[in-house]
């Protein structure tokens, strides 16, 4: 099977690494890819958010399946264009991708399907939003409706912080059109959990749970980021909890979307808060999580490619395939090394040292790197996802941080408390 992956970050590096190990694979390409991903896949030039470019690229290499990594190509309708041209794609069509590209759409779907989530209010003008914020009980959460690269959510513990979040989104235009509409919702209390599942539009097959560390600094302080680390498995989150989330959250969402005539094929990600009353949905994503993918896929013993193909409708559906995924007992911990200044303004082009010194059991997934005549340099905000495997979370954590300690670039920063249970 010839496969084209869309994207260029750490998630796509992990996908390329995993798919490259498939017995069903005959060729692997990535658009636009990166120097890091080039170890496993040939890079193609072009814009992954342009449906026409993606269709042309897939035709040129004779791709049997296109695997979409980031959310933006899904929101742009890349899957719609591929399927219209007879090319199978892993990922939802544009209408179904609204479950991530519009938080208002996702909330309305949750209400319709009876999926537990936080109470919320929606605003399309700043004056009404600020009046609402002035009367709300603290803490509260302010969310931009559209795609904001994981940075459009503010957990406000002071009223001024909530007001600033409203102004940034709706008056200052920090997130562009994504912040033209916002949600203000109750702040849920508990431990966070990420659960991803693969769907063929009817059934869901869960992957292993993970916990993402979204805040910039230790102790969950600082602004939200795209993710500063991750761990899998998560203590206390066993098969019973996974089954409950599938029953109460993932399957109802997929069934509701099928009833709407917008079936969800691809990866459905539930960001959850484990409250005293049970799991509550914080958000839905319509693609593999980042950095969740960097800890979940290294633990997967099953061949991923046939599962992706079944989800895309290339062969038997997931139920007929009888999917029961096999997992390693090992734990995985990912620590993200970021550029100084991230998630706000930051400089790039700094040399990276120590990438060849990582010990066995460690993986380095390239998120924002490039090469020049001298070697590896930084090219993004999140630069590397350093993942360690081990028989326990503690040993996986030690392996990850040992590798982090061997890598250096000017301005590098990372959380020191990932998986420190």
Sum up the structure in keywords.
421 residues, alpha+beta, Rossmann fold, Dna Ligase, domain 1, D-amino Acid Aminotransferase, Chain A, domain 1, five-stranded parallel β-sheet, five-stranded antiparallel β-sheet, 13 helices, 30% helix
Description:
It is a single chain. The chain is globular. The chain has helices at about 10-20, 50-60, 70-75, 80-85, 95-100, 105-115, 125-135, 160-170, 240-260, 295, 305-310, 320, 395-405; strands at about 1-5, 25-30, 40-45, 65-70, 90, 120-125, 140-145, 155, 180-185, 190-200, 205, 210, 215, 220-225, 230, 265-275, 280-285, 330-340, 360-365, 370, 375-380, 380-390. The longest helix is centred in the middle third of the chain and has 21 residues, at about 240-260. A five-stranded parallel β-sheet has the order 3-2-1-4-5, sandwiched between helices. A five-stranded antiparallel β-sheet has the order 12-15-18-22-19. It contains 13 helices and 22 strands. The chain has about 425 residues and is α+β, with helices and mostly antiparallel strands. The chain folds into four domains: about 1-95, Rossmann fold (3-Layer(aba) Sandwich); about 120-185, 2-Layer Sandwich (Dna Ligase, domain 1); about 190-320, D-amino Acid Aminotransferase, Chain A, domain 1 (2-Layer Sandwich); about 330-405, Phosphoribosylglycinamide synthetase, C-terminal domain (Glycinamide Ribonucleotide Synthetase, Chain A, domain 4, Alpha-Beta Complex). It starts with a strand and ends in a 15-residue tail after the last helix.
């Amino acid at each position: 099977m010839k496969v084209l992956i869309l994207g260029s970050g750490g998630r796509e590096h992990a996908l390329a690494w995993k798919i490259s190990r498939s017995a069903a694979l005959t060729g692997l390409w990535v658009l636009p890819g990166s120097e890091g991903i080039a170890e496993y896949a040939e890079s193609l030039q072009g814009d992954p958010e342009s449906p026409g470019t993606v269709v042309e690229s897939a035709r040129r290499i004779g791709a049997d399946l296109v695997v979409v990594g980031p959310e933006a190509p899904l929101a742009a309708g890349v899957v719609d264009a591929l399927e219209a041209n007879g090319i199978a794609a892993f990922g939802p069509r544009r209408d179904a991708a609204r479950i991530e590209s519009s938080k208002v759409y996702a909330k309305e779907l949750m209400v319709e399907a009876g999926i537990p989530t936080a109470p919320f209010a929606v605003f399309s003008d700043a004056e009404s939003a600020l009046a609402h914020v002035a009367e709300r009980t603290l803490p509260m959460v302010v969310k931009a409706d559209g795609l904001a690269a994981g940075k459009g959510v503010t957990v406000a513990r002071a009223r001024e912080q909530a007001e600033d979040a409203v102004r940034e989104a709706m008056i200052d235009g920090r997130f562009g059109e994504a912040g033209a509409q916002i949600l203000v919702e109750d702040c849920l209390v508990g431990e966070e959990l990420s659960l991803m599942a693969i769907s063929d539009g009817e059934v869901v097959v869960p992957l292993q749970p993970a916990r993402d560390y979204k805040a910039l600094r230790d102790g969950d302080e600082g602004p939200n980021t795209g993710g500063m680390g991750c761990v899998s498995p998560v203590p206390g989150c066993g098969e019973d909890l996974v089954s409950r989330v599938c029953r109460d959250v993932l399957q109802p969402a997929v069934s509701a979307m099928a009833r709407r005539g917008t079936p969800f094929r691809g990866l459905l990600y539930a960001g959850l808060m484990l409250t005293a009353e049970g799991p509550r949905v914080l958000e839905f994503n319509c693609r593999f999580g980042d950095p969740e993918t960097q800890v979940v896929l290294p633990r997967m013993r099953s061949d991923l490619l046939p599962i992706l193909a079944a989800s895309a409708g290339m062969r038997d559906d997931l139920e007929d395939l009888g999917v029961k995924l096999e997992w390693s007992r090992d734990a995985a911990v990912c620590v993200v090394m970021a550029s100084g200044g991230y998630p706000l303004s930051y400089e790039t082009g700094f040399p990276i040292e120590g990438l060849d010194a990582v010990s066995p059991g460690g993986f380095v997934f390239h998120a924002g790197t490039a090469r020049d005549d001298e070697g590896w340099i930084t090219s993004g905000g999140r630069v590397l996802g350093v993942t360690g495997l081990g028989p326990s979370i503690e040993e996986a954590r030690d392996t990850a941080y040992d590798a982090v300690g061997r890598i250096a670039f000017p301005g590098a920063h990372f959380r020191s408390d990932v998986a420190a249970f």
